[in-house]
Amino acid sequence: MGRKRLPDPGKKSQTFWGFVELVTTKVEDVKDALKGEEYDTSSRGHRYQPPARAVGEGVYRIVRHNSSKNKMHTHLIYKLEFPPPKEENEPQESLNIEPEGSFLIQIKNPSQTSNSQFRGVGNKRKAAFPAHLQGQLGKTRYHPADPPDFLNYEGCEFLLISASDDIDKELGLELETEGEADPSCSDLVRTFGDTASTTPLFKGIWS
């Protein structure tokens, strides 16, 4: 996400830009991306990027939804399993990660110029969609994430637009989690081990 956090679900229609940085089937590629790194820039000198920290784990879906005007759009919805509801949630609050949330998600057409406030990734990093996907975009600037396959391509740009922090009330859907949160059942821990700090994930505090 361009602003390093999600749109605030409490501020309806708040719009943030993001893009797909990495697409891979290799766990090691993701582990490398989560590690800290040092690098030099021409304008700000030597910089240090700290390692990633896990702040949320749960279930999600991308769903179609028809508005009252019978116009289809897509929602990205999620529900957290970690951190458990009884824990503190300072890291999550700072990143606008609610226990559950719903966002409209729109895919940016890489072949169309945009007059919006979002600068984008630049021509060298734009997504190269196959013809059957690019054809669905037509001449529109933004398109629903239908099919979700658009998100399988690096450089895919999208908008997340805050909709609600109550999925059932907004869409009449209930996301089922795996029940009571047990750290031993965490997919993040099983997959990535100690690559990322899990204190925010399990205890709801930064450290």
**Tell me about the biggest sheet?**
6 strands, antiparallel
How many domains is the backbone divided into? 1
Helicity, in percent?
10-25%
Order of helices and strands: EHEEEEHEHEEHHH
Mean pLDDT value: 90
Number of strands: 8
Poorly predicted spans? none
In what range is the share of β-strand residues?
A: 25-35%
Query: What distance separates the N and C termini?
Result: 23 Å
Task: Write a structural description.
- It is a single chain.
- The chain has one domain.
- Helix content is 17%, strand content 27%.
- The longest helix is centred in the N-terminal third of the chain and has 8 residues, at 27-34.
- The protein has 207 residues and is of the alpha+beta class.
- It is built from six helices and eight strands; from the N terminus they run βαββββαβαββααα.
Q: What's the short version?
A:
The protein is of the alpha+beta class. It contains six helices and eight strands. 23% of the residues are buried.
What's the helix and strand layout?
Layout: E1 15-19, H1 27-34, E2 37-41, E3 45-49, E4 57-66, E5 72-82, H2 90-94, E6 100-108, H3 131-137, E7 142-144, E8 157-164, H4 167-171, H5 187-192, H6 199-203
Antiparallel strand pairs: 1-8, 2-3, 4-5, 5-6, 6-7, 6-8
